[in-house]
Amino acid sequence: MDLSANRDRLAELILRRSFQYREDPPFTLASGKTSFFYFNCKPVTLDPEGMNLIGRVLFGMIRGTGVTAAGGLTLGADPLANALSVISFQEGEPIKSFIVRKDVKAHGTKSAVEGNVAKGEHVVVLDDVITTGGSTITAIEKAREAGLIVDRVIALIDREEGGRENILALVGRVDAVFTRTEIMERYRKI
Protein backbone atom coordinates (compact mmCIF):
# COMPACT_ATOMS: atom_id res chain seq x y z
CA MET A 1 0.00 0.00 0.00
CA ASP A 2 1.31 3.46 -0.83
CA LEU A 3 1.31 6.46 1.52
CA SER A 4 -2.00 7.80 0.17
CA ALA A 5 -3.75 4.45 0.56
CA ASN A 6 -2.32 4.06 4.07
CA ARG A 7 -3.60 7.53 5.01
CA ASP A 8 -7.05 6.74 3.61
CA ARG A 9 -7.32 3.48 5.55
CA LEU A 10 -6.03 5.19 8.70
CA ALA A 11 -8.70 7.88 8.33
CA GLU A 12 -11.35 5.14 8.08
CA LEU A 13 -10.14 3.60 11.33
CA ILE A 14 -10.05 6.98 13.08
CA LEU A 15 -13.60 7.77 11.99
CA ARG A 16 -14.85 4.36 13.03
CA ARG A 17 -12.99 3.95 16.34
CA SER A 18 -11.64 7.28 17.59
CA PHE A 19 -13.89 10.13 16.46
CA GLN A 20 -17.06 10.99 18.36
CA TYR A 21 -19.55 13.79 17.78
CA ARG A 22 -22.34 14.93 20.09
CA GLU A 23 -23.99 18.21 20.94
CA ASP A 24 -25.74 17.41 24.20
CA PRO A 25 -23.78 17.27 26.42
CA PRO A 26 -20.59 18.40 24.75
CA PHE A 27 -17.28 16.72 25.64
CA THR A 28 -14.97 18.31 28.20
CA LEU A 29 -11.38 18.37 26.94
CA ALA A 30 -8.15 18.15 28.97
CA SER A 31 -7.82 21.92 28.53
CA GLY A 32 -11.16 22.41 30.28
CA LYS A 33 -12.83 23.62 27.08
CA THR A 34 -15.95 21.90 25.78
CA SER A 35 -16.36 20.56 22.28
CA PHE A 36 -18.98 18.82 20.17
CA PHE A 37 -16.36 16.39 18.89
CA TYR A 38 -13.73 14.25 20.57
CA PHE A 39 -10.79 12.17 19.42
CA ASN A 40 -9.86 9.19 21.59
CA CYS A 41 -7.01 7.87 19.47
CA LYS A 42 -6.09 4.92 21.72
CA PRO A 43 -8.48 2.45 19.98
CA VAL A 44 -6.53 3.10 16.76
CA THR A 45 -3.00 3.76 18.04
CA LEU A 46 -3.05 0.55 20.11
CA ASP A 47 -4.60 -1.61 17.37
CA PRO A 48 -2.29 -3.84 15.25
CA GLU A 49 -3.56 -2.50 11.92
CA GLY A 50 -3.68 1.05 13.25
CA MET A 51 -0.11 0.84 14.51
CA ASN A 52 1.11 -0.53 11.19
CA LEU A 53 -0.62 2.24 9.25
CA ILE A 54 0.58 4.95 11.65
CA GLY A 55 4.14 3.66 11.46
CA ARG A 56 4.08 3.63 7.67
CA VAL A 57 2.51 7.09 7.36
CA LEU A 58 4.88 8.67 9.90
CA PHE A 59 7.89 7.01 8.29
CA GLY A 60 6.78 8.32 4.90
CA MET A 61 6.62 11.82 6.39
CA ILE A 62 10.16 11.81 7.85
CA ARG A 63 12.12 9.32 5.75
CA GLY A 64 15.45 10.75 4.69
CA THR A 65 15.36 13.78 7.01
CA GLY A 66 18.26 12.71 9.20
CA VAL A 67 16.05 12.40 12.27
CA THR A 68 17.37 9.62 14.51
CA ALA A 69 14.55 9.29 17.06
CA ALA A 70 10.91 10.11 17.69
CA GLY A 71 8.86 10.31 20.85
CA GLY A 72 6.84 12.53 23.07
CA LEU A 73 4.90 12.83 26.27
CA THR A 74 3.68 9.51 27.57
CA LEU A 75 0.95 8.09 26.91
CA GLY A 76 -0.32 9.67 23.71
CA ALA A 77 2.99 9.59 21.84
CA ASP A 78 4.20 6.14 22.94
CA PRO A 79 2.33 3.95 20.44
CA LEU A 80 3.07 6.41 17.63
CA ALA A 81 6.81 6.38 18.34
CA ASN A 82 6.94 2.62 18.71
CA ALA A 83 4.99 2.03 15.49
CA LEU A 84 7.32 4.37 13.61
CA SER A 85 10.39 2.70 15.10
CA VAL A 86 9.33 -0.80 14.04
CA ILE A 87 8.39 0.23 10.49
CA SER A 88 11.56 2.29 10.06
CA PHE A 89 13.67 -0.71 11.08
CA GLN A 90 11.81 -2.93 8.61
CA GLU A 91 12.41 -0.33 5.90
CA GLY A 92 16.16 -0.22 6.60
CA GLU A 93 16.30 3.32 8.05
CA PRO A 94 15.94 2.80 11.83
CA ILE A 95 14.46 5.63 13.85
CA LYS A 96 14.58 5.03 17.60
CA SER A 97 11.68 5.72 19.92
CA PHE A 98 11.85 7.57 23.23
CA ILE A 99 9.43 8.44 26.01
CA VAL A 100 9.09 11.76 27.82
CA ARG A 101 7.84 11.21 31.36
CA LYS A 102 5.14 13.45 32.78
CA ASP A 103 6.79 13.20 36.19
CA VAL A 104 10.41 12.27 36.80
CA LYS A 105 10.85 9.33 39.17
CA ALA A 106 12.61 10.06 42.47
CA HIS A 107 14.87 7.02 42.03
CA GLY A 108 17.13 5.48 39.39
CA THR A 109 18.49 7.85 36.76
CA LYS A 110 15.79 10.46 37.46
CA SER A 111 15.63 11.12 33.74
CA ALA A 112 12.67 12.85 32.12
CA VAL A 113 13.53 11.22 28.77
CA GLU A 114 13.78 7.43 28.49
CA GLY A 115 15.21 5.54 25.54
CA ASN A 116 18.44 5.04 23.64
CA VAL A 117 18.92 8.70 22.74
CA ALA A 118 21.85 11.01 23.39
CA LYS A 119 22.50 14.74 23.51
CA GLY A 120 22.76 16.30 20.07
CA GLU A 121 20.43 13.88 18.27
CA HIS A 122 17.84 15.34 15.90
CA VAL A 123 14.40 14.13 16.92
CA VAL A 124 10.73 14.45 16.10
CA VAL A 125 8.27 15.10 18.91
CA LEU A 126 5.02 13.23 18.36
CA ASP A 127 1.54 13.63 19.83
CA ASP A 128 -1.73 11.89 19.13
CA VAL A 129 -3.93 15.01 19.36
CA ILE A 130 -2.99 18.69 19.47
CA THR A 131 -5.53 21.10 20.92
CA THR A 132 -3.73 23.88 22.82
CA GLY A 133 -0.31 22.26 22.34
CA GLY A 134 0.37 22.11 26.08
CA SER A 135 1.49 18.48 26.32
CA THR A 136 3.53 18.78 23.13
CA ILE A 137 5.26 21.90 24.46
CA THR A 138 6.07 20.04 27.69
CA ALA A 139 7.63 17.23 25.62
CA ILE A 140 9.66 19.72 23.55
CA GLU A 141 10.97 21.45 26.67
CA LYS A 142 11.95 18.19 28.40
CA ALA A 143 13.56 16.83 25.20
CA ARG A 144 15.62 20.02 24.90
CA GLU A 145 16.62 19.85 28.57
CA ALA A 146 17.96 16.35 27.78
CA GLY A 147 20.06 17.88 24.99
CA LEU A 148 17.95 16.66 22.07
CA ILE A 149 17.47 18.87 19.02
CA VAL A 150 13.80 19.01 18.09
CA ASP A 151 13.62 19.02 14.30
CA ARG A 152 9.83 19.13 14.07
CA VAL A 153 6.54 18.06 15.62
CA ILE A 154 4.08 15.65 14.05
CA ALA A 155 0.58 15.10 15.41
CA LEU A 156 -1.80 12.39 14.35
CA ILE A 157 -4.68 14.89 14.68
CA ASP A 158 -4.53 18.70 14.81
CA ARG A 159 -7.82 19.99 16.24
CA GLU A 160 -6.97 23.42 14.74
CA GLU A 161 -7.62 25.25 18.00
CA GLY A 162 -4.40 27.23 18.33
CA GLY A 163 -2.06 24.45 19.40
CA ARG A 164 -0.11 24.42 16.16
CA GLU A 165 0.56 28.15 16.45
CA ASN A 166 1.61 27.78 20.11
CA ILE A 167 4.06 25.02 19.17
CA LEU A 168 5.43 27.00 16.21
CA ALA A 169 6.65 29.58 18.73
CA LEU A 170 9.17 26.90 19.82
CA VAL A 171 9.75 24.71 16.76
CA GLY A 172 10.02 25.69 13.10
CA ARG A 173 7.86 22.92 11.71
CA VAL A 174 4.59 21.32 12.82
CA ASP A 175 2.88 18.72 10.64
CA ALA A 176 -0.31 16.75 11.15
CA VAL A 177 -1.34 13.49 9.59
CA PHE A 178 -4.92 14.80 9.71
CA THR A 179 -6.58 18.08 10.64
CA ARG A 180 -9.97 18.50 12.24
CA THR A 181 -11.19 20.02 8.95
CA GLU A 182 -10.16 16.94 6.99
CA ILE A 183 -11.73 14.52 9.46
CA MET A 184 -14.95 16.56 9.58
CA GLU A 185 -15.14 16.54 5.77
CA ARG A 186 -14.80 12.76 5.78
CA TYR A 187 -17.34 12.47 8.62
CA ARG A 188 -19.95 14.47 6.68
CA LYS A 189 -19.61 12.06 3.74
CA ILE A 190 -20.52 9.02 5.83
Structure description:
- With 190 residues, this protein is an alpha/beta fold.
- The chain has one domain (3-188): Rossmann fold (3-Layer(aba) Sandwich), CATH 3.40.50.
- It is built from 7 helices and 10 strands.
- The strands form 3 sheets. A 6-stranded mixed β-sheet has the order 7-6-5-8-9-10, sandwiched between helices. Strands 1-4 form a two-stranded antiparallel ribbon. Strands 2-3 form a two-stranded antiparallel ribbon.
- It is globular, with a radius of gyration of 16 Å.
- The model has no long low-confidence stretch (mean pLDDT 95).
Give me a quick take on this structure.
With 190 residues, this protein is of the alpha/beta class. It contains seven helices and ten strands. The model has no long low-confidence stretch (mean pLDDT 95).
